[in-house]
UniProtKB/TrEMBL annotation:
The keyword Zinc does not apply. Residues 12-175 form the Glycosyltransferase 2-like domain. GO terms for molecular function: undecaprenyl-phosphate 4-deoxy-4-formamido-L-arabinose transferase activity. InterPro entries: Glyco_trans_2-like, Glycosyltransferase_2, Nucleotide-diphossugar_trans. This is Dolichol-phosphate mannosyltransferase. GO terms for biological process: lipopolysaccharide biosynthetic process. The lineage of its organism: Bacteria, Pseudomonadati, Pseudomonadota, Alphaproteobacteria, Rhodospirillales. GO terms for cellular component: plasma membrane. Pfam families: Glycos_transf_2. Gene3D superfamilies: Spore Coat Polysaccharide Biosynthesis Protein SpsA, Chain A.
């Protein structure tokens, strides 16, 4: 199928902040992974970058017409950047990637196929979550992530071994129905379950960062994680999912 003809079926959304040196490589990899698989679009959100990210996005747009991008005038955080990207997407299915190049776009076709294999009645509330079984990060980051995932699994019962993985696939309608708050992207599995949905984890490739440096430290993640976890625990306890039956 052509990646430009007709309404796209799939949108690959990528939030970025100061990732100028990773833009062209990642967009090219997304194009290579999905060309001939489905009609797709690529939606980037520049979250207030102070480097050459806007210029690199303009260059990428000239080479890859299925790319569109918008910019936050000032940084609003990764979760808001994802939400902006999803709202700007035209496709009903969303694949999410981090902008640092560590998530592999080549995993998207298999994730899409698994999502489509779900029955129509439950597909729109299915979240396919990537699982970085062989992480290419520093030992301190791997241990911090392992501890955070264990705490989240215990507190939220989200049945997800790697909630922090940026590779995820879900319906646009599901995402737009979820509560939004800063850092909510780290809790998408729990929020999906809260909405009456289902989460399936699939092993995905993980790669060393291509260029640049992370916008987060282990300490910063930990400091924001505690109030976020308590807030999501409250949301989970207060949720209700009625079984709706037709009227008489």
């Amino acid at each position: 199928m052509s990646e430009t003809a007709g309404t796209p079926e799939l949108a690959v959304v990528v939030p970025v902040k100061n990732e100028a040196d990773n833009i062209l490589t990642l967009v090219g990899e997304i194009h290579a992974a999905l060309s001939g698989v489905t009609n797709f679009e690529i939606v980037y959100v520049d979250d207030g970058s102070t480097d050459a990210t806007p210029q690199r996005l303009a260059e990428a747009k000239a080479r890859f017409p299925m790319l569109s991008w918008v910019r936050h005038r000032f940084s609003c955080g990764q979760s808001q950047a994802i939400a902006t990207a999803v709202r700007h997407a035209k496709a009903p299915i969303i694949a999410m990637l981090d902008g640092d190049g560590q998530n592999d776009p080549a995993d998207i076709p298999a994730m899409l196929a698994r999502w489509k294999a779900e029955p129509d009645a439950t597909r729109d509330k299915l979240l396919i979550a990537g699982w970085r079984a062989n992480r290419k990060d520093t030992s301190s980051r791997r241990w911090a992530s392992k501890a955070a995932n264990a705490i989240r699994a215990w507190a939220l019962k989200d049945n997800t071994p790697d909630t922090g993985c940026g590779s995820k696939l879900f319906s646009r309608a599901l995402f737009l129905d979820l509560p939004r708050f800063d850092h909510m992207h780290r809790y998408l599995p729990a929020l999906t379950i809260r909405a009456g949905g289902k989460v399936e984890s699939v092993v995905v490739n993980h790669r060393p960062r291509g260029a640049g440096s992370s916008n987060y430290s282990n300490l910063r993640r930990a400091l924001v994680g505690v109030p976020d976890l308590l807030g999501v625990m409250w949301l989970m306890r207060r949720s209700r999912n009625p079984v709706v039956e037709p009227g008489q």
